[in-house]
Design a protein that fits this description.
This protein has six helices and two strands. It has a two-stranded antiparallel ribbon with strand order 1-2. It is an all-alpha fold. Strand 1 and strand 2 form a beta hairpin. The protein has one domain: Arp2/3 complex 21 kDa subunit ARPC3 (Orthogonal Bundle). Helix 3 (76-94) packs antiparallel against helix 4. It is 73% helix and 2% strand.
Length: 175
């Protein structure tokens, strides 16, 4: 049930966006991070995988639509980054039964690093070699890293605070 809920939240997060050049700032990262923190690596990444699968089937849940052709969108790499980042965030957070705020922040930062790494590499390759919209390294860093970084760092802190409060509640509900 929680996997389905987080898949839906990630889809909603795609439409809560601030348009900036190249990569729109959305709340998807908030919900993928919370999925990792609250559901753990396996179920958290499963919820992201369900979201990606639904979008690739043609349901317009991505920021710019849906369908299998979305793979050639430069921003698709961020979706792959959400999947991997959610798994890593969940694994790092779940390595302690009652994770500290510091551990949750470190897990969130590690997940964010993977989202950026996969997203930026994918964006560069697709833009330059598949859709013929050349993009240099400096504009890539500016638009795909420096512009969204302050908001994503704020999300890391917010998700860690929410995780610190919600993890014990979810653990009580499981037992």
């Amino acid at each position: 049930m929680l996997c389905g809920l987080f898949s839906a939240l990630i889809a909603v997060g795609a439409f809560i966006k601030i348009p900036v050049p190249a990569v729109p700032f959305t709340l998807q990262f908030l919900f993928t991070t919370l999925a990792g923190l609250l559901l753990g690596p396996r179920l958290g990444s499963l919820s992201v995988g369900i979201y990606i699968g639904i979008g690739l089937l043609g349901i317009p849940v991505f920021t710019s639509g849906g369908g299998f052709g979305y793979i050639l969108q430069p921003t698709f790499g961020y979706l792959l980054g959400f999947y991997v980042g959610t798994y890593v965030t969940g694994a790092l957070a779940a390595s302690a039964r009652q994770p500290s705020l510091k551990r949750l922040l470190a897990a969130n930062f590690a997940g964010l690093l993977l989202v950026y790494l996969l997203g930026m590499i994918y964006y560069y390759v697709v833009a330059n070699y598949f859709i013929n919209q050349p993009l240099g390294v400096w504009p890539l860093i500016l638009y795909c890293f420096l512009f969204p970084l302050p908001g994503d760092l704020a999300i890391c802190f917010a998700a860690a605070g929410l995780g610190k409060r919600l993890i014990p509640i979810l653990q009580k509900g499981v037992h």
